[in-house]
Amino acid sequence: MFELIRVFNQVVESGSFSQAANALSMAPSSVARNIDNLEAKLQTTLFKRSTRQLVLTDEGRYFHHQALSLVEEADALVNQMKQSPSQPQGLLRISAFESFGNVFLAPLIPRFLDQYPNVQIELELDNHVVDLNSDNIDLAIRIGTPKDSRLKARKLLTNRTVLVASPQYLKANPAITEPNDLSGHNCLLISQQRQKCHWYFSRENERHKVQVTGNFSSRGGSPILQGALHGSGVLLLSDWMVAPYLKQGTLTNILPRWQVSYGEKRSDEIYALYKPSHYPKPHIRAFIDFIVQHLDSIDGSTGE
């Protein structure tokens, strides 16, 4: 069928059976038979034929428009399958939430491109959820169990959250000895689009849901992290974002015996999401494998 379509596209491009035959190194009669066979399979007339000219019918114009992209995709697939698995190539469009993109991906991408110089990467840092089935994105990295069952997902990292504040903030404000103490503190928040914000605490059989408020919120974690370092308030953020500052002593872990999260039953794992395919693009697989390899030192539970 594809060979018939290729002959059809060449006839449209050439404008006649004879010129298409020259381009394809075929006899004009063979070209004509191919078009007859294609029309028979489609049960429609693609050309209005006369001794003077060859004109596409409305159905022929529609079929040609669709057939062009079909053949291009088929050719691209064949080229991908011919590539050496160790040498992926092509454009890779990645969407990642802002903090993970800045902390992990931005430093790793140059190293990946050193290893795979035939790959080009477009990185979009956006905390909005993208739709891989409609947006022009090959790979998305997001927090939480994927809700779209049509997508393939690979776990990259367990996203544990930690409650922190700067030593100067803690010195200047009332002590925090239990979760409910936070109601009297300025808390730096991930934006909830004007909804009330709660932090969830658990320890053995104890559970607390604490409403928190504050004067600084953002969609991503980086801005409010700067607020915490400045001494502006209490922060609940991923451990991989605050770990260097805890080590330096510029942030202090608060209520370390409690597990704290943004949701009572929230899944905080970080996943790489991509569209399923019988022929996955080699550069997608190579990039996921590369970042998993480098994240293993942070979280040993990565996997499919």
Compact overview of the structure:
With 304 residues, this protein is an alpha/beta fold. Helix content is 39%, strand content 26%.
The rounded distance between the terminal residues' Cα atoms is 37 Å
Fraction of residues in helix: 25-40%
**Helix/strand structural class:** alpha/beta
Radius of gyration: 29 Å
Q: Return the average pLDDT rounded to an integer.
A: 85
Widest β-sheet, arrangement of strands: 12-7-11-8-10-9-13
Named at the architecture level, the CATH assignment of the largest domain is 3-Layer(aba) Sandwich
- Give the oligomer, counting copies of the same chain as homo and different chains as hetero: single chain
Morphology:
elongated
Q: What is the element string, with H for helices and E for strands?
A: HHHEEHEHEEEEHEEEHEHEEEH
What percentage of amino acids are in beta strands?
25-35%
Number of helices: 9
Q: Any idea of the CATH topology of the largest domain?
A: D-Maltodextrin-Binding Protein, domain 2
Query: How many distinct beta strands?
Result: 14
Number of domains: 3
